Amino acid sequence: MIEVHDLHKHFGGFHAVDGASLRIETGSITGLIGPNGAGKTTLFNVIAGVLPPTSGRVVMDGEDITGLPPHELFGKGLLRTFQIAHEFSSMTCRENLMMVPEGQSGESLWNTWFGRKRIADEERALRAKADEVLEFLTIEHLAEQPAGMVSGGQKKLLELGRTMMVDAKIVFLDEVGAGVNRTLLNTIGDAIIRLNKERGYTFCVIEHDMDFIGRLCDPVICMAEGHVLAEGTLDEIKANDQVIEAYLGTGLKNKDQLEEAGA
Questions:
Q1: What are the pLDDT digits (tens) for 106-154?
Q2: Burial class (CB in 10 A: 0-12, 13-18, 19+), 102
Q3: What residue stretches are annotated with the ABC transporter domain (predicted)?
Q4: Which of 27, 142, 218, 241 has its Cβ near the most Cβ atoms within 10 Å?
């Protein structure tokens, strides 16, 4: 589904992404791991159109999407979440979901005067869909709660719910487990697996929690210093000498520490 070819992103003399090439297969849940500063989030930002690349190409389903802005990629079904959830805090959780689909009739001044029935019908349909999403994510009890008042993990679930309000094809999840307790992280993991198996979502997941990666992801891609270091199953990644060196800088003699560090 996604092919990245020799991608570079430079900030002055700093090469945050330095010749990364990778492939994300349709229907997969691909994990992306690496030490802090490996370039993972910058890679996500370039793929998702948040940052323009310095050079290289990004291809989605055979179409060159390099440098397209996020709203165009949104229309093509490519979505991403962020390490810190971006909710509209004063709106309810249901309202946060209802506002996601673009091109709603209520956005037109003409329709607010002459298309009120159309707007009302559309809002009823959106409300029903939002409630279905909240139930799917097991947070239907938060429907009327202001989004700014729910927990960090519940905000991450709400971000995942936004992707369900449109026809998402591939979703890039950036540290979905950051600051989330284990119970909610399991709930998020369950939702990702169900979306993948039942609705055909493709995911690429940045995460430092290797138990979470091991449960969800195959393959796993490891980045270091802006490029792809290794790819395979999590067990293969853990056994890779270069990966161990990248995480610990001390080689095979400290291999057990990699396991303890969760990488």
A1: 555 555 555 577 777 788 999 999 999 999 999 999 999 999 999 989 9
A2: exposed
A3: 2-250
A4: 142
* CA 19/CA 56 separation, integer angstroms: 8
DSSP character at residue 165: T
Retrieve residue 189's tokens. 């993991």
Q: What is the phi/psi pair of residue 8, to 5°?
A: -130, 140
Q: What is the distance between the alpha carbons of residues 198 and 97, in angstroms, rounded to a whole number? A: 20
Contacts 24+ apart (CB under 8 A), 227-231: 227/17, 227/18, 227/19, 227/20, 227/21, 227/39, 228/20, 228/21, 228/22, 229/34, 231/22
pLDDT digits (tens, 9 = 90+) for 194-220: 999 999 999 999 998 999 999 999 999
The encoded tokens of residue 212 equal 């979470």
